[in-house]
Design brief:
CATH class of the largest domain: Alpha Beta
Distance between the termini: 39 Å
Radius of gyration: 27 Å
Structural class: alpha/beta
Number of domains: 4
CATH superfamily of the largest domain: Thiamin diphosphate (ThDP)-binding fold, Pyr/PP domains
CATH topology of the largest domain: Rossmann fold
Mean pLDDT: 91
Oligomer: single chain
Strand order of the largest sheet: 3-2-4-5-7-6-12
Low-confidence stretches: none
Helix content: 25-40%
Strand content: 15-25%
CATH architecture of the largest domain: 3-Layer(aba) Sandwich
Number of helices: 21
Length: about 625
């Protein structure tokens, strides 16, 4: 039995933050859970999928976040509890439905978990999703640790049902992906039967009336939050400095105060209900100190909202000094950490503090460099995307018309850097490469002579690119879409999608064929294996020069990491040392300097290239790029 599904009240287990959120949903009696995979949120649905059959849940990976929210909402409309999870970018996709759902309201508890990614560790931006709570007049909770992640999720379902509104929970990378102790509560044994009551209406219209009702619900939420156990103050009655914080900032603030030994001088106001703010509670604590430092990630959401409350009550509170992102005491971009918070407090109350030596990081880097070979951000060994971009580079050079590649988010985003030979020229949202190509594909009438190529992954195609492809055919755009089919949502953990033949819970599912879809949309479609570089280059060049209109080239080759789980390597690859000319070769170490597959190593002692047997997957692509034919392959 998984620790996430055991009915063991009082037992303490070690859980990741996302697992704690999943456990909170189970303790709340959730029945329907849906998401589109996106780090740092992916493990929430991944965890629930593992216990779906055992606990009688419906858990799915939906084709995109809007559909996922609609699936969870259907459960709510039928009186069951539903959970939807996504990353910050996904909330943009779901927002069209969310900002109507707030007006119609819901029935069964409905919780939307959004995991933000400060510093864009695995994202194209570091968007702060909390603004959607304010935009949509929706309750917002922010867990600060793992126990609270579970308790808040559980509580959010209750709040949702009391208000008839979806409730947002905002996590961040370091809460979602860290681990800590969580004390379990009882799992409910009831099995409610869903029923849609025809006497009820879930309409956004009439908008004005529903908007008024929404504001009344938000006022009720504000009153509920005045007594919330997720808000509390720790510190002296009259601190020299008050730290106001939420989410991950709470743990950073505690560590900073321990570093500085200022628990008797600095107080911490921890707010877990960050929209709507419990106004009376906040005002009561603002009286304690004349100087307030805000610690939060990413945007000054809490800071600005507290300042609004202060502005309305400044005559009664007296003069206050506020510090945070606006004052530059806290960086306004990137992730926070204990050192940042420690230095901010130190500077404000002038307490001595000796951090680790200034040269520590340099010495650690130098020591690590001796043990670990330098590696740039790169495709995995044997990744079919490296072969694809290599073929694109050659084909565009042979074509000679200065063509360019439009991309979007996924593993193949590395095409913008050395790993993809700098081929990708744009990077925005999922499916945006194809959408941009719709526009570029109309510019030949104005004299654009450059070939237009868009790249898109298989999961991304189902998620967001299909409407753009339909638009391209409908409006007569001229471009080539490279559909990189590696049979997985590889960037976020190899979750299944409509083209893989299985569901989130591992059940067999129909395969929605990419080639058939593209042909229905009117595109000329061909399929190649990117590992066959010569055939791929030839096909690319022919499609660029001979075919007009919407063309799709499906580059079909399973992700190397997926393949490694169930099959042997294709080839045994080695560098014939007597043929490798090393730095005297006219290629100037082409294999390790330009092609840069991690399976290729430069042996400084021998002055030659070699294969790293522990890393090489045996794809054999590198055998085609050595001008001296020093790399050879044999069937494994």
């Amino acid at each position: 039995m998984s620790s996430i599904s055991q009915n063991a009240p009082g037992k303490t287990v070690l859980l990741m933050g996302n697992e704690a959120i999943a456990r909170g949903a189970l303790e709340a009696g959730v029945k329907v859970c849906a998401a589109y995979p996106g780090n740092p949120s992916s493990e929430i649905i991944g965890t629930l999928a593992k216990v779906a059959d055992e606990l009688g849940l419906h858990v799915e990976w939906s084709v995109n976040e809007k559909v996922a929210l609609e699936v969870a909402t259907a459960a709510s409309f039928a009186g069951l509890r539903g959970l939807c999870a996504m990353k910050q970018n996904g909330l943009n996709v779901a927002s069209d439905f969310l900002l109507n759902l707030n007006l119609s309201g819901c029935r069964g508890g409905l919780v939307l978990v959004v995991a933000d990614d400060p510093a864009g560790v695995s994202s194209s931006n570091e968007e702060d999703s909390r603004i959607f709570a304010k935009l949509g007049d929706l309750p917002l909770l922010e867990p600060a640790n793992f126990q609270e992640a579970k308790e808040m999720t559980k509580s959010a379902f209750e709040i949702s049902e009391q208000l008839g509104l979806p409730v947002l929970i905002r996590s961040v990378t370091r809460v979602s992906h860290a681990r800590g102790n969580v004390c379990l509560d009882e799992l409910p044994q009831s099995r409610p039967k869903p029923r849609f009551e025809n006497s009820l209406r879930f309409h956004a219209l009439p908008a004005v009336l529903n908007h008024k009702l929404l504001h009344e619900k938000l006022d009720r939420a504000k009153q509920m939050f005045e007594e919330s156990p997720f808000n509390f103050y720790r510190g002296p009655e009259k601190p020299e400095l008050m730290v106001a914080t939420s989410g991950s900032g709470w743990m950073y603030s505690l560590e900073a105060m321990i570093n500085l030994n200022v628990q008797e001088r600095v107080g911490v106001l921890k707010l877990g209900t960050t929209w709507p703010l419990p106004e009376s509670y906040v005002l009561e604590h603002l009286k304690k100190a004349d100087r307030i430092l805000f610690i939060e990630e990413v945007d000054p959401f809490l800071e600005n909202n507290v300042k609004e409350i202060y502005a309305q009550n400044c005559l009664f509170l007296g003069l206050k000094a506020f510090f945070g992102k606006a004052s530059k005491h806290i960086p306004d971009v990137g992730e926070l950490n204990p050192e940042i918070v420690t230095h901010a407090i130190q500077n404000l109350i002038q307490v001595p503090y000796e951090p680790r030596p200034a040269d520590y990081a340099l010495r650690a880097h130098e020591a690590a460099a001796e043990l670990i070979p330098a590696r740039a951000l790169s495709f995995c060994p044997g990744c079919p995307h490296r072969a694809t971009y290599w073929a694109v580079k050659i084909a565009l050079a042979l074509d000679g018309r200065d063509g360019f590649v439009l991309g979007d988010i996924g593993c193949y985003s590395l095409g913008m850097g050395p790993s993809g030979f700098g081929q990708m020229r744009t990077l925005h949202a999922m499916g945006s490469g194809t959408g941009l190509a719709c526009g570029f594909g109309q510019l030949n009438r104005f004299g654009l002579e450059q070939p237009v190529i868009a790249v898109c992954g298989d999961s991304t195609f189902y998620h967001a690119a299909m409407p753009a492809l339909a638009n391209a055919y409908y409006n007569g755009a001229d471009f080539l879409l490279l559909l990189l089919d590696n049979s997985a949502t590889a960037m976020t953990g190899f979750q299944p999608h409509p083209g893989t033949g299985s569901t989130a819970t591992g059940k067999e599912a129909p395969v929605i064929d990419l080639k058939a879809i593209c042909e229905v949309f009117g595109a000329h479609v061909e399929v190649v294996d990117p590992f066959d570089v010569a055939a791929t280059v030839e096909t690319l060049l022919r499609l660029l020069q001979e075919e007009k209109g919407v063309k799709v080239l499906i580059l079909k080759r399973e992700c190397a990491l997926v393949s490694a789980k169930h099959q042997k390597r294709l080839y045994q690859v080695e560098v014939e040392q007597e043929h490798c000319l090393g730095e005297t070769c006219g290629c100037n170490r082409f294999c390790t300097r330009i092609f840069k597959c991690p399976g290729l190593m430069w042996d400084k002692a021998a002055g030659k290239a070699r294969i790293d047997e522990a890393i090489c997957t045996g794809c054999g692509v590198c055998t085609r790029i050595c001008p001296a034919s020093a790399i050879r392959k044999e069937k494994a």
